[in-house]
Each structure stands twice: as structure tokens, then as C-alpha cells.
Amino acid sequence: MISVDSSILIQIANFVVLIFILNAIFYKPIRNILQERRKKIQGYEEGIQALHDEAAEGEQAFQTKVGDAKTKGFQEKETLVQAGQEEERRLLDEINQKAQADLEAVRAQIAKDAEDARRSLKGQAEAFAGAIAEKILGRAVS
After folding, report:
1. How far, in Å, CA of 21 to CA of 23, rounded?
2. Could you give the maximum distance between any two Cα atoms of the chain, in Å?
3. Can you spell out the DSSP letters for 76-99?
4. How far apart are CA 74 and CA 11, in angstroms?
């Protein structure tokens, strides 16, 4: 059996002193190390979050710049396409005018050549008609 006497008070005092000694030697340094580790981890987490936010801002800025560049490129492309179409229309008009002028010149030349051929053939036709009539009638036709 357990007897309650003055040694129990010594045991209780011994236990309390042991708790203070263990707390001072082991528990307090371990708690300090754990607290420092927790602070370091929290600092790392805050650093990671800051870097993550910075990366997100950089990504957003990059996407904005890419969008702006695409818009600017599309506008420049449209401007170049429009300028090309205007140049094409101008060249086609110039070519059509030149072709019309050439066509008129060719028509005038053909009309002149046809008139020359008609005069030449008219003169030859009269000569042939006279020759044929002479052969058919056997005498000269005047």
C-alpha cells in the first residue's frame, strides 16, 4: 500500500523542480526552435505568394502586350491590304486606259488598212472586170 507521509511532499517538490529544470533545458529550446522554424516557413510562404503574385502580374502584362501587338499587327495588315487594293485598282485603271488607247489605235489602223484594201481592190476589180469582159466578149471594153 501507499503510505502518505512526509516523503510525498519531497516527491512533489522533486517533481516540480524536475519540471522547471526540464522546461528550461529541453522544452523551451525546442519550442524556440519550432517557433523559429514556423516563422521561417511563414516567411517562405509569404515570399512564394509574393513571387506568385508577381508572376501573375507579369503574365497579365505579357498577355496585354501580346493582345496590343496582335491588334496593332492586324491594323497594319489591314492598312497594307487596303493600300495594295488601291494600288491594284490604280494599275488596272492605267492598264485599261492603255488597252483602250491601243485598241482605238488598232481599230483606226484596221479601218485605214481596210479602206486602202477597198480602194486597191476596187481598182483591181475594175481592171479584172474589164479583162473578164474582154475575154468573154472578145473585144476591148472602154
Report:
1. 5
2. 186
3. HHHHHHHHHHHHHHHHHHHHHHHH
4. 89
Structural element, H or E, at residue 106 = helix 28-137
Cell of 122: 476596187
Cα 71 from Cα 77, distance rounded (Å) = 10
Rounded to 5°, angle at Cα 66 from 64 and 68: 70
N-term to C-term CA, the chain: 181
pLDDT digits (tens, 9 = 90+) for 65-113: 999 999 999 999 999 999 999 999 999 999 999 999 999 999 999 999 9
- Count of beta carbons in the 10 Å neighbourhood of residue 133: 13
User: Which of left, alpha, beta for 77 (phi over 0: left; psi -120 to 50: alpha)?
Assistant: alpha
pTM: 0.46
